[in-house]
Amino acid sequence: MIDVKLLQKNFDETATALMRKKVSAETIAELKSANETLKSAKQAYETLQAKQNELSKLFGQYKKEGKSTDELKAEVDANKVTLGELLDAQRAAEEALDAIIMRVPNIPDADVPDGEDEESNVELRKVLTPPIFSFTPKEHWELAEQNGWIDFEKGVKLAKSRFSVVGGMGARLERALINFMLDFNRERGFEEYSVPMLVNRRALEGTGQLPKFEEDLFKVEEEELYLIPTAEVPLTNLFQDEILASADLPIKMTGYTSCFRKEAGSGGRDVRGMIRQHQFHKVELVAITTQDQSDTVFDEMVACASDLLAALGLPHRLVTLCTGDLGFGAARTVDLEVWLPGQNTYREISSVSNTRDFQARRAKIRYKEDGKNILAHTLNGSSLAVGRTMIAIMENFQQEDGSIIIPDVLQKYL
RNA sequence: GGAUAGAUGGCAGAGCUUGGUUUAAUGCACCGGUCUUGAAAACCGGCGAGGGUCAUACCUCCCAGGGUUCGAAUCCCUGUCUGUCCA
User: Fold this and answer.
1) How far out from the chain centre does Cα A293 lie?
2) Catalytic, out of A201, A276, A347, A369
3) Could you read off the pLDDT of A145-160 as tens digits, one per residue?
4) Quick check: A57 CB within 7 A of strand B?
5) Are the beta carbons of A121 and A324 closer than 8 angstroms?
């Protein structure tokens, strides 16, 4: 959630920044006026409430002194009616503001490049050189089926399309990858957590998935619980409603969970193979920092994910997302794209974002500094989507006969 | 599933029977100071959150939501969660 006060204090600058994220001028104007309406509604209510409190105190005093309270009561009763009306007005104003602001995305950092879509993303650097094959490299679904690692039909039998079953060496590789990533992250100072994969509405509002992206979440019937789309949700919300000591920051966390997404908007994209599944495994990095620390920790997280890929021997590139490609809550994002020889292209395998205080404001994550409570900064990043890492391993380390060489660093985990 | 007890500030814990200077005692923790070579102890002071204001004032919050009342942490109802017992 953005800070509405910015709009009040610094309208032009804030509006311009929001428009970079395609927020319409009308929405911005509505936001401002909704906030002003709320402010004056509050003021009206509170002024009368103060009066009422005073009269009530008098009432007690009169009773004690044996004075007549008839006149007082008449006044208080009259106020009560008005007070009810004012309260209704205030609530309506609150709801109106909420309806708008909960759907307004974060303000991008000033140095984030402008652009409509991924075409305008800016490459930061490439790491490792894509392998050259003496044969035509296959795509991962061919390799997966040939090696008996992944069974797409069984996934459909058990659930529906976009589900798959991993078996044999594939299953062992999956487990090895998870363990390798967690150990790697722990060595970089990220503490490991194992968290619920079902969370309540409040948590999803805290990290920004709700209310706007309800259609992309799997919901448990009659339970008000949702399957998490990413471990970012439980990990970040671990500190929901808390005031942390600044000495305890940064808090750096890692965790492995399954993730569940309806992929509502992704139509026919990536239906083949396991690039885009309803259920996938991911090791996540999350950090809660002071406002001063977040840039440094952001770099650490990017480096952590990139070094992990490098340790696996996977060629990849780092890309700064332009405004049009930036997610809802992110102020800046660096994507890591791994080289897929079968597809002859780089594909996203990790995404590291700094949300600044956008999530912290919603989730009420604060820290105390010099006696003041300050909104924390929250960051998240995939320390690799496991399925996509498997794809990358298959495609990059395939041999002419379709067999796959597993990276050395994983050997001890198999 | 049934019964029962409970939910108060970072934690512990009073207040609820008898509704009215209770935002809420007290202890611990924490912060600042005095003392000390330094530290501990002792003593003095501060110490919940959100909104609002230049700053005050003021408003809201004692699990959540309703209700009773001039007035609710305190009374009533509903829900959620936790403990204990029963099946």
Assistant:
1) 19
2) A276
3) 999 999 999 999 999 8
4) yes
5) no
Residue whose CA lies closest to nucleotide B47 C1':
A371
Based on the residue annotation, tell me whether A351 is a catalytic residue of this protein: yes
pLDDT reported for residue A267: 67
Measured CA A42 to C1' B52 distance, in angstroms: 9
Q: In what order do the strands lie in the sheet with A225-227?
A: A198-200, A225-227, A219-220
Q: Is the CB of A8 under 7 A from strand B?
A: no
- Which pLDDT tens digit goes with each residue over A66-88? 777 777 788 888 888 898 899 98
Domain ranges of chain A: 4-101, 118-411
Task: Quickly give A42 CA vs B51 C1' distance in Å.
Answer: 9
Q: Which of A261, A317, A332, A366 is catalytic?
A: A261
Asked whether residue A73, judged by its CB, lies under 7 Å from any atom of the DNA or RNA strand B, the reply is: yes
pLDDT mean across residues, chain A: 92
Protein-covered nucleotides on strand B (Cβ within 7 A): 10, 20, 49-52, 58-60, 70-71
Task: Taking residues A332-342, report their average pLDDT.
Answer: 96
Please pick, among A30, A36, A142, A348, the residue that the annotation labels catalytic: A348
Measured CA to CA in angstroms, residue A224 lies from A197, A209, A219, A243, A320 at distances of 13, 15, 7, 27, 36
Q: Do residues A243 and A343 make contact, with C-beta atoms less than 8 angstroms apart?
A: no
Contacts 24+ apart (CB under 8 A), A96-102: A96/A34, A96/A37, A96/A38, A97/A4, A97/A31, A97/A34, A97/A35, A97/A37, A97/A38, A100/A27, A100/A30, A100/A31, A100/A34, A101/A1, A101/A2, A101/A4, A101/A31, A101/A34, A102/A1, A102/A205, A102/A211, A102/A212
A268 pLDDT higher than 70? no
Could you tell me the two tokens for A45? 């209510």
* Tokens, residue A299: 């770099």
Strand B lies under 7 A from the Cβ of residue A51: no
What is the CATH code of the structural domain delimited by A4-101? 1.10.287.40
Q: What ipTM was reported for this prediction? A: 0.87
Query: Which nucleotide is closest to the Cα of A370 by its C1'?
Result: B31
CATH number of A118-411: 3.30.930.10
User: Residue A83 and residue A91: Cα distance in Å, rounded?
Assistant: 12
